[in-house]
Specification:
This protein has 150 residues and is an alpha+beta fold. The chain is built from 3 helices and 9 strands, in the order ααββαβββββββ. It comes from Sediminibacterium sp. KACHI17.
């Protein structure tokens, strides 16, 4: 009887362990996917708070309103696409086009849709550092916005 139980346990264990690792394999995420997770969080949305603004490379002191300014990105079903909302009441869609390109399309502007094309300088779990040339044309002003997440 003991031999039967021992053989049954050995066969069951062999069957159990033989199935591991042969079916679904975990595919590592691309850098683009990791950055999108950082932007929106793997849970679905993330709130970013303004930490610093630089204009043409010069740090600009934040106003009281800017010290409270935030943006929230919420992932959608479309790849690398999120909705966004900011403290100014702007709403729209954000597209992480590549590891260095973030596009925001404001859809609730009084004059219709407006687009902001950012260069992503850094995007980690806790830091969002983006830069835009504002407004397009001459003379250009380069505005860098640095955000933090809790």
């Amino acid at each position: 009887m003991r031999a039967f139980i021992l053989i049954t346990l050995l066969v069951s264990g062999a069957l159990l362990f033989s199935g591991c690792g042969k079916g679904d394999q975990i595919v590592p995420k691309s850098e683009h996917e990791k950055l999108f997770d950082n932007l929106t969080s793997t849970l679905g949305n993330k709130q970013w708070f303004l930490k610093a603004i630089y204009e043409n490379g010069v740090l600009v002191p934040l106003t009281d309103a800017q010290k409270r300014y935030y943006k929230t990105y919420t992932r959608t079903q479309s790849p690398f696409t999120a909705t966004f909302l900011d403290d100014d009441g702007n709403r729209g869609e954000a597209y992480l086009l590549s590891v260095i390109q973030l596009k925001e399309v404001i859809t609730n502007g009084p004059l219709g849709a407006a687009t902001r094309d950012y260069v992503v300088r850094e995007l980690t779990e806790k830091t969002l550092d983006i830069q835009v040339t504002n407004p397009p044309g001459l003379p250009a002003k380069i505005v860098r916005e640095v955000y933090y997440a809790n």
